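re: that chain from earlier
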Amino acid sequence: MDEIAGLKYFPRMIGKIRLHAAGKLWKELHLNLGKGSDGALIDLMRIDYEMLRQRVLCGGTDEEILQWCEQQTRPLNATEKLVWNHYVSKLGWNDHISSTLVKRKLESGLAHRDDIQTIAHYIDVDEGRRP
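^ sequence. v structure.
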């Protein structure tokens, strides 16, 4: 899973905003923009999703956008990043969205893949970053 400045998932959230604006984000993800893992991360960062979306659309690197977020609220400390990274890395493994993982694997023709045990791993396989 991609990370920036020790924070996992942030590049994915920013990437989805860019893809959506370019009309290239797959439709299944449209309803979840700013929700799900996006929502959990913006809550942790204490940033408004619409403000973040507008900032992303103004351009800049992921690093610049993260710095902007930190200027709007506060930087996450090492413990907050550690807890977030563990949470997002294990999401779907024996937790409240395990059934979502099973459903997504089934819909994607990956139900036979017992090695895919987390949402992060599923996303990497589904999007071609892992075999």
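The chain has a mean pLDDT of 94.
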